[in-house]
Write a structure and sequence with these properties.
The complex is a heterodimer. Chain A is built from three helices and twelve strands. Chain A has a six-stranded antiparallel barrel. In chain A, strands 6-7-8-11-10-9 form a six-stranded antiparallel β-barrel. Chain A is rod-shaped, with a radius of gyration of 41 Å. Chain A has helices spanning about 1-30, 35-55, 60-115, and strands at about 120-130, 140, 155, 160-170, 175, 185-190, 195-200, 210, 225-230, 245-255, 260-265, 275-280. Chain A is about 40% helix and about 25% strand. Helix content of chain B is about 75%, strand content about 0%. Chain B has one domain (about 5-170): Arp2/3 complex 21 kDa subunit ARPC3 (Orthogonal Bundle). In chain B, helix 2 (about 40-50) runs antiparallel to helix 3 (about 55-70), helix 2 packs parallel to helix 4 (about 75-95) and helix 2 crosses helix 5 (about 105-125). The chains are: A alpha+beta, B mainly alpha. Chains A and B meet through helix 1, helix 2 and helix 3 of A and helix 1, helix 3 and helix 4 of B.
Chain lengths: ~290, ~190
C-alpha cells in the first residue's frame, strides 16, 4: 500500500514536471501566433473582465494602502528634499564665498600692481579671528614667523593700509588695525603732500581717523587722499610703512589754520569686513 | 497523503483562482518598500502543508500555470517552480509533520525564497539577458520579508477555506477528544461518580 502511494506520488510529480517542461519548451519554441500563445490570449480575454471587475472592486482598498504608502513615501521625499535644499544652499553659499574671495584677491593684485608692491615680500593671509571688543581693534591672520612675518610689518587689504603686525606666532600673527587707539601712522595728504600723523579719532569708531600735527598753513582740502609718508617724522629715517600706501580720504577739517587743526578722514578699508590681507614682509624692499 | 475528493478539488480550484486574481488585480499593484508581496508561493505552501505533497505539487502546478497564463508570461516557468514548492511543503508535512504556530512563517519564507531563486534561475536559463543586480537581490529580500509577514494570515485563510473539505486529521481529532474531555481520565472519573 505504501509503495503504491509513493509510486503514485512520484508518477504524478514526474508527469507534472514533464508537463511543465513540455509547456515551457513548446511555448518558448513557437511563434507569437502559436497555439499556446493563442490559448494564453484567449484565456486572458476571458479573464480580463473578471480581473477588471476585481481590480475595480478592490480599488478602494488599494487606494487606502496606496495612501499609506504615498504618505510614507512623501515623508521620505520631504526629508530628501530638505537634504537637497540644504546641500544646494551650502553650494550657493560656497559659490558666493568663492566669488567674493576672487574679487577681493584680484583687487589686491591690482592694488599691488598699482602701488608697485611686488618686491615687498607680500604674504597673503586670511583673517582667522577678529577681536570682539571695540577696545582692541586687532585681527589674527594665518601667517606667522614661519612665513617670515615679523613685528612691525605693515598689513594691507585690497583697498588700503589696515594696520601692522604687533605679535607673531609660528603660524599666525596679530595685526593691530589703524583704528586702534595705540596706532600712529606717519602720513601725507593733498597735492603738496602735507605731513602729519594719522591716528583714530576715538576708540571703537572704525570710520573716522584723524590726521594731527599738520602745518597750520597746509593746503589740505576735503576729498584729498591721505597716504603713508614713508619716513618717520622724528629722524626722517625710512618708515616700515612704504611710501604711498592709501589710508583714507579727508572728510572734514576742524580748527582749520590753527596749530590744533585736525583733519578727519574716512579710511578706505572697511575694518569690519576684513577677509584676505597682505603682509609686507620686506617693507623697505631690497634686502629688507 | 490526502486522497483527492471532488469537494476538495473544487475548493482548491477556487482558492487558486481567487488567489491569482487577487494577486494580479490587487497585490501586484501595491508596492511595499519597493517590492510586491507574492501570494502564489504562500498559497501553494499552505496547501502543501495542509494537504500533502501530491495535492501541494498539483496545486502548485495549476496555480503556476494559471498565473503564467494571466500574466502573459512564458508558460511552464511558474508552474514548474511552484510545483516544486508545493511538493516540498507537502513532503515536509508528510515526513516531519511540524507543529507550531510559526511554522507557516518559516515555510512561507522558505517557499518565497525558493520560488524567487527558482524563477530567476529559470529566466536566466531561458536566456534572459539581465545581470544579477543589487536591486534584484534587494527586491527578492523585500518580497521575502513581506511574504513572511503575510504567511500566517494567508495560511489561516486557506485553512479556513479548505477545512470543511479536509478529512479529519488524526492529530486534530486526538487533540479535540482530549480537550473536550472525552478521553480525559479526570472527566471519566467525574462521569463515573455521577
Amino acid at each position: 500500500m505504501y509503495d503504491k502511494t509513493v509510486r503514485r506520488r512520484r508518477a504524478v510529480l514526474g508527469l507534472l514536471v514533464a508537463c511543465s517542461l513540455i509547456l515551457l519548451t513548446a511555448y518558448f519554441g513557437e511563434t507569437g501566433s502559436g497555439a499556446l500563445h493563442g490559448v494564453q490570449r484567449g484565456t486572458t480575454e476571458v479573464l480580463n473582465p473578471i480581473q477588471e471587475g476585481a481590480s475595480r472592486a478592490l480599488k478602494p482598498i488599494r487606494d487606502l494602502f496606496g495612501w499609506f504608502g504615498d504618505t510614507i513615501a512623501a515623508k521620505g521625499q520631504v526629508e530628501e528634499l530638505r537634504k537637497e535644499r540644504d546641500r544646494l544652499r551650502s553650494e550657493v553659499i560656497a559659490g558666493e564665498i568663492r566669488e567674493s574671495d576672487y574679487t577681493r584677491l584680484s583687487n589686491m593684485v591690482e592694488l599691488d600692481g598699482a602701488l608697485g608692491l611686488e618686491g615687498k615680500g607680500l604674504k597673503t593671509g586670511r583673517v582667522i579671528f577678529q577681536s570682539p571688543t571695540v577696545w582692541y581693534a586687532t585681527v589674527l591672520v594665518d601667517k606667522g614667523s614661519d612665513d617670515g612675518v615679523r613685528v612691525g610689518h605693515p598689513v594691507i587689504n585690497e583697498e588700503a593700509l589696515i594696520g601692522r603686525v604687533t605679535e607673531v606666532f609660528g603660524g599666525a600673527a596679530q595685526v593691530t588695525l589703524i583704528t586702534d587707539t595705540t596706532m600712529k601712522v606717519p602720513a601725507r595728504a593733498g597735492r603738496r603732500g602735507e605731513f602729519g600723523i594719522v591716528e583714530p579719532s576715538s576708540a571703537g569708531n572704525p570710520n573716522d581717523l584723524v590726521m594731527k600735527f599738520t602745518n597750520p598753513g597746509a593746503r589740505i582740502a576735503i576729498g584729498d587722499r591721505v597716504v603713508t609718508r614713508g619716513t618717520e617724522p622724528e629722524d626722517r629715517k625710512q618708515s616700515l610703512y612704504p611710501v604711498g600706501l592709501p589710508i583714507g580720504q579727508v572728510r572734514r577739517i576742524e580748527n582749520e589754520g590753527t596749530d590744533t587743526q585736525e583733519i578727519h578722514l574716512r579710511p578706505f578699508a572697511d575694518m569690519r569686513s576684513l577677509d584676505f590681507v597682505q603682509i609686507l614682509t620686506n617693507p623697505r624692499g631690497g634686502g629688507g | 497523503m490526502i486522497a483527492a475528493a471532488p469537494q476538495l478539488i473544487a475548493r482548491l480550484g477556487a482558492v487558486g483562482l481567487l488567489g491569482v486574481i487577487v494577486q494580479t488585480a490587487f497585490v501586484s499593484q501595491l508596492p511595499i518598500a519597493g517590492a510586491n508581496a507574492d501570494l502564489s508561493p504562500l498559497l501553494v505552501m499552505a496547501v502543501g502543508l495542509m494537504c500533502g505533497s501530491l495535492a501541494g505539487g498539483s496545486f502548485g502546478f495549476g496555480v503556476g500555470l494559471f498565473a503564467d497564463v494571466v500574466s502573459l508570461q512564458t508558460l511552464g516557468v511558474s508552474s514548474l517552480v511552484l510545483l516544486g514548492v508545493g511538493y516540498g511543503a507537502g513532503r515536509l508535512r508528510e515526513a516531519r509533520d511540524p507543529e507550531g504556530t510559526l511554522v507557516p512563517v518559516a515555510v512561507g519564507a522558505a517557499a518565497t525564497l525558493a520560488f524567487g531563486v527558482g524563477f530567476a534561475l529559470l529566466q536566466f536559463l531561458l536566456g534572459v539577458d539581465a545581470p544579477v543586480s543589487w536591486a534584484l537581490l534587494r527586491q527578492l529580500l523585500a518580497t521575502l520579508v513581506i511574504n513572511a509577514l503575510l504567511a500566517l494570515p494567508v495560511y489561516a485563510l486557506v485553512r479556513r477555506s479548505l477545512q470543511p473539505a479536509l478529512p479529519d486529521d488524526p492529530r486534530r481529532r486526538r487533540r479535540r477528544a482530549y480537550t473536550t474531555g472525552g478521553l480525559s481520565p479526570l472527566s471519566r472519573g467525574a462521569e463515573i461518580r455521577r
